[in-house]
Amino acid sequence: MTDTPLLSVAALTRLYGRHVGCKDVSFDLYPGEILAIVGESGSGKTTLLNCISCRLAASGGSVSYRMRDGETRDLAGLSEAERRFLMRTDWGFVHQNPADGLRMRVSAGANIGERMMAVGDRHYGRIRSTAEDWLSRVEIPGARIDDRPTAFSGGMRQRLQIARNLVTAPRLVFMDEPTGGLDVSVQARLLDLLRGLVGEMGLSAIVVTHDLAVARLLSHRIMVMKAGRVIESGLTDRVLDDPQHAYTQLLVASILEV
Ligand SMILES: Nc1ncnc2c1ncn2[C@@H]1O[C@H](COP(=O)(O)OP(=O)(O)OP(=O)(O)O)[C@@H](O)[C@H]1O
């Protein structure tokens, strides 16, 4: 990890009319760091993730990002084309529902290949062999390369979505409940896989989850949200083993319905 943050979020706020989505959220994310955002349903996790990742306009505050050339830019100042380029090349976004992050009507290989082509790769042989390699990294048999995701199980679809996102070696990956819709046994395997890949590639990630076990396994740091605000943050083990805020104590004790 370096001394310069990859991402800096300052006083980020999103209102829906008079209703608070998230308010005054500030934090830095360093290269190689995994941050989990936790909190009960409606606490503002998804709103915050979408504002940070430029999928939703903020009502106030700022997000700055250190680009590949080393320059830190305020994301609100990027042109639409620059923002799209950043999303395609330097960022990944893993949705809870794989159908939101995959193209369901094209083959598994093409789902991976498309991302490579978006960053300029045009060599068919290399694209296909890289796609094969990534399928095996996410434990999908190479023989399924020409199958569409519609023919895959939920767990396989999610693993394909992960491969599609990671194949271009993004520097920052956003994940919204990445194990959300899966059976418990499938979740555990997927988490192991995800943890291995993220660690191996030294990625930075922001993971939204209502599942503290996911936060415990994946993240270095945790931010606890309630009613749109961050009420506690710190190293994951510290926050989960010794929560300071009464709400976090309830969350950890699983007394809250999350
Ligand atoms: N499009 C919208 N219009 C109005 N209010 C919204 C909208 N989206 C979210 N909200 C409100 O903003 C608050 C935060 O919602 P958000 O979806 O970010 O929470 P969350 O923690 O991600 O919840 P969940 O875990 O259920 O997805 C909630 O009170 C929600 O009702």
Count of helices? 10
Radius of gyration: 18 Å
Instruction: Give the total of beta strands.
Output: 10
Classify the beta-strand content into a percent band. Answer: 15-25%
Helix content: 25-40%
Low-confidence stretches: none
What about the largest sheet? 6 strands, mixed
Class from helix and strand fractions: alpha/beta
Organism: Jiella avicenniae
Family: Belongs to the ABC transporter superfamily.
Pfam families: ABC_tran
Protein name: Phosphonate C-P lyase system protein PhnK
How does this structure look, described?
By secondary structure, the protein is an alpha/beta fold. It has helices at 45-52, 80-89, 98-101, 108-118, 124-137, 154-166, 184-201, 212-218, 236-241, 246-252; strands at 7-16, 19-29, 34-38, 60-66, 72-74, 91-94, 172-176, 204-208, 221-226, 229-235. The mean pLDDT is 93. It is built from ten helices and ten strands. It is globular. Helices cover 38% and strands 24% of the residues. β7, α7 (184-201) and β8 (204-208) form a beta-alpha-beta unit. The protein has a six-stranded mixed β-sheet, with helices on both faces. α4 (108-118) packs across α5 (124-137) and α6 (154-166) packs parallel to α7. It folds into two domains: 1-90 and 170-258, P-loop containing nucleotide triphosphate hydrolases (Rossmann fold, 3-Layer(aba) Sandwich), CATH 3.40.50; 103-169. The protein binds adenosine-5'-triphosphate. Adenosine-5'-triphosphate (ATP) binds next to β2 and α1. Adenosine-5'-triphosphate binds at residues 16, 19, 21, 39, 41-47, 210.
